[in-house]
Amino acid sequence: MELIFDTVVIGGGVAGMSASIYLKRANKDFCILEKSALGGQLNNIDSIHNYPGFKEISGPDLAMNLYEQVNSMDIKVLPYEVLNITASGDNYVITTNKEQIFCNNIIIAIGRVPKRLSIKGEDTYVNKGISFCALCDGTFYKNKNVVVIGNNNQAANEALYLSNICLSVKLISRTKDLLTEESIKDQLADRDNIEVIYNSDVLEFLGDENRLNGLLVLDKDTKDSKNIIVDGAFVYIGQVPLTFAFKDLQILDDTGYVIVDSSMQTKLKNIYAVGDVVKKDIYQIITAASDGVTAAYNIIEKDK
Ligand SMILES: Cc1cc2nc3c(=O)[nH]c(=O)nc-3n(C[C@H](O)[C@H](O)[C@H](O)COP(=O)(O)OP(=O)(O)OC[C@H]3O[C@@H](n4cnc5c(N)ncnc54)[C@H](O)[C@@H]3O)c2cc1C
């Protein structure tokens, strides 16, 4: 079966949903393709303090608000995964895991996924003690000992979140200082059950093949490596775009991010990209929403 739309939004995170709200209000013929859950990364954030209009809101609550808005506007959301895009004359053909879709405009809004350490034991123990989402999996480690691996704001915030649930949290930073806001460092210092281990690299995840039970960690100051016994490890070393479906379009930089101009258009006519998948300086909810609106506005204006 073939589907035809004027515009297709690929990805239903905050960027894709923001674009969709504007497209719908302009009465455009479009759909969102979402391979997993609407809300994207929002679903993994414990607490948001920097989105205007909310002193504090949980990620899942913000995702639910957006979902309800999209739902109330009768925006068509199809549970499809996009596998490939090809040009067909002036239009594009989107190949999904279900059917092909023909359209004039595309907004790529597929976000990013957690970066992996790519060390020994990681593949064996993902979901068997290694997690990339404290909000999703933290509850399984109630009164247990965990590590958080990372040195950024996300890692520190997740360590704070886990310290409310777990017996102890070790935050392992590969740098001599944390790359976080000062207020977050103060909060970490105030928690009795958080220990920050600086200037150290995790070399290997250890376990009995069925379950993670430790880490091999190198202290870069002393050059000593030691085993740390843990029940769980949460990895927060950044994110990467998963853009292999768009490789043939030649719109990516050498790290896989999509390159766009100020109207969020790629070098290919009528293909836009928005949110975390784009090469840019600031990766936040508000910038993702803003990108989505910019792309939608340009599609609406050019078709007037
Ligand atoms: C732990 C954590 C904490 C954060 N805290 C904050 C914070 O406090 N404040 C803040 O402003 N920002 C924060 N961020 C960043 C913020 O979440 C992101 O910048 C924003 O959510 C990105 O939105 P997006 O729509 O671009 O991408 P995403 O949210 O990644 O959405 C992309 C969507 O596309 C879908 N998709 C992917 N590939 C395909 C495909 N091939 N076919 C169909 N669908 C596909 C995915 O399933 C996903 O739903 C945090 C991020 C994380 C991970």
So what's the oligomer here? single chain
Mean pLDDT: 96
Q: For the report, how would you describe the main beta sheet?
A: 7 strands, mixed
CATH architecture of the largest domain: 3-Layer(bba) Sandwich
The CATH C-level class name of the largest domain: Alpha Beta
The third-level CATH topology of the largest domain is: FAD/NAD(P)-binding domain
Low-confidence blocks of residues: none
- Looking at this structure, what is the CATH superfamily of the largest domain? FAD/NAD(P)-binding domain
Number of domains: 2
Number of strands: 17
Percentage of residues in helical conformation: 10-25%
Q: How large a portion of the residues is in β-strands, by DSSP E?
A: 25-35%
* Cofactors, ions and other ligands in the entry: flavin-adenine dinucleotide
Distinct helical segment count? 7
Q: Strand-and-helix sequence, N→C?
A: EHEHEEEEEHEHEHEHEEEEEEEH
Radius of gyration: 21 Å
Termini separation (Å)? 30 Å
Structural class: alpha/beta
Outline? elongated
List keywords for this structure.
binds flavin-adenine dinucleotide; five-stranded parallel sheet; alpha/beta; elongated; 304 residues
